[in-house]
Amino acid sequence: ITAITTLRLVEQGVLALDEPVGLQLIDHLGVQDADPDAASITVRGLLSHTAGMGKGQDLMFGNGAPSYADAARQALTSSVGGGGYNYSNLGYVLLTVLIEAATGKAYERVVHEELLDPLGLDDVDRRVLRTIIEKYNGGPVGLNTIAASISEEQDTIMDVVEPYLLQLGFL
Predict the structure, then answer these.
(1) Tell me: the pLDDT tens digits for 45-87?
(2) What is the residue-wise DSSP string for 108-149?
(3) How far apart are CA 53 and CA 46, in angstroms?
(4) Within 13 Å of residue 113, how many CA atoms lie on the same side as its CB?
(5) Residue 42: beta bridge partners?
(6) CA atoms of 168 and 114, how far apart (whole Å)
(7) Which of 14, 96, 112, 132 could form a disulfide with 9 if both were Cys (CB 3.0 to 4.6 A apart)?
(8) pTM of the full predicted structure?
(9) CA angle at residue 53 from 97 to 55, to 5 degrees?
(10) How far is the C-alpha of 53 from the C-alpha of 103, rounded, in Å?
(11) Quick one: pLDDT at residue 61?
(12) How is residue 28 annotated by DSSP?
C-alpha cells in the first residue's frame, strides 16, 4: 500500500524517484543531529531497501520507538549507511513520513485518496482488510473467523467481498 501510494505521487510529480529526500524528512521531523548520510536518501532507495536503513531494524514493533515518527527520527540519527540491499521496515516508515511531508496530509488520508477510494472499496471491504492485517497479521484466516470478527454475514463476505478483493489482488 505504501509503495503504490508513493509511486502514484511520483507519477503526479509530487515526489521523484532519484532526487534526495533526506533533508525533507529531517526538516519535517525536526531532527537535530541527523546522520550525515541521511541527506542522500532517495525514494528509490527506500522503496528498494537500498537506502542503508538496516542498522535500526530493532526500533520497530515496540522495541524502542513508540510511534512511526519516533522510529523515523531515530533512524535518521543513527541508522543510515551501508550499501546494497538490506530489507528494513524503516525504509517504509520513512516513506510514510515523506508522504505526509510532501502532501501536507496524514498518511492514512493520502492512502485513501490515492489508492483505496479510486478502487471503490466500501466500508465492509475495508473492515475485512483491516481485520486480516491488524487482528491476524495478514493471515491466513478463514471466512467464518473474519465474519465473526466484523459482525458481518459469512455469505456476504463469501459472495460479495471476497471475489472483489481477489479481483483487485488484495486476497
Answers:
(1) 999 988 887 665 666 655 677 788 888 888 888 767 766 788 8
(2) HHHHIIIIIHHHT--HHHHHHHHIIIIISTT----HHHHHHH
(3) 8
(4) 11
(5) 20
(6) 15
(7) 14
(8) 0.77
(9) 130
(10) 23
(11) 56
(12) H
Residue 143, C-alpha cell as written in the block: 471466512
Reading the block at residue 163, the C-alpha cell is 471475489
Rg (the chain; Cα; Å): 18
Query: For residue 153, with 0-12 CB atoms within 10 Å meaning exposed, 13-18 middle and 19 or more buried, which class applies?
Result: exposed
Question: Rounded to an integer, what distance in angstroms lies between the CA atom of residue 2 and that of residue 121?
Answer: 17
On whether the CB atoms of residues 101 and 28 are closer than 8 A, the answer is yes
What separation in angstroms does the CA of 154 have from each of 5, 24, 170? 31, 46, 18
The residue among 114, 124, 135 whose CA lies nearest residue 163 is 124
Looking at residue 66, the DSSP 8-state letter turns out to be S
Across the strands, what pairs with 20?
42
